[in-house]
Specification:
Blueprint (H helix, E strand, L loop, with lengths): L2 E4 L10 E3 L2 E2 L3 E4 L2 E4 L4 H14 L6 E4 L7 H17 L3 E4 L6 H12 L6 E4 L1 H9 L8 E2 L3 H7 L12 H6 L4 H8 L8 E4 L4 E5 L2 E6 L13 H15 L3 H19 L7 H6 L1 H9 L3
Parallel strand pairs: 1-6, 1-7, 7-8, 8-9, 9-10
Antiparallel strand pairs: 2-6, 3-4, 4-5, 10-11, 11-12
Amino acid sequence: MKILVVGTVPIENFNFYIGTPSFDGDSLNFGGQKLPIGMGTLSLFSAAYLTVLHLKDEPPSLMTAGDIGKADGSRILYQKLTEEIERLKPKVLVLHYIMPILAQTKVFATKLKNLNSKPTIIADAGFMYAFKASKMGNVCDIFTPDVGEMAFLADEEAVHPAYMEKHLFEIDSVNVEVLIEQARKVHGLPKMLIVKGAVDYIVYNGNILFKIDEPMVPFLEPIGGTGDTLAGILSGLIAHGLPLEKAAYCACKINRVAGLLTNPTPRTRVNKIISNIPKAIDMVLSNF
């Protein structure tokens, strides 16, 4: 298995699923039940799916369960991951929407540390919160925060973005580089951060490797799901064999170019951007 994407879907009583649903451009088909990709884990998976399909690699797998905030589906995913990760042996593990449950996060992180062959691990959304709050984020290779989440990562004691220090929240959109510098002092973060925003920052060991602001697509940021697509593209490029720094840079550029090709408005749906990923891959990789 090259890529395993893990995250919940906001649907009550959606049973645990692992496999590769088919994708028709608008929806994923889970053996007869169709779910629109919208934003979140399904957008991330769809972006990864089109990326690897275009690069002629093995399709990604998806592990998911329904959770509308009761943590029932999240607990199932923690348990299944901990039990199955050694057998599944993904090359790239992408951890996404889940309710942060710190006790189960620590058990899972310990399991990851003890694997004979550890995958490249990308954490975003709820999984990123859980790893940071439990101070176990250094088991991951990459976090992909947006600017607001970067303020959370820069606060040593915060266990959720709602509880971060006020002064960090106030500077999050003014000077991202201050937050990046502050995060250097925080225990338990991965070596690489990709900070998503009007400018994308690729950070390694606290040092800014790249600042990416082109192409600038003003209407892209308000569209829900564009951060999810970035993580999906990134996973596909890493699975294809690109080194982490090159994969991170190219994923940011591909995500932006896919947005540009869509000519978006604030009403544009993320599936329109996802459909342009293959063309954006060709445009970016041919010039890199």
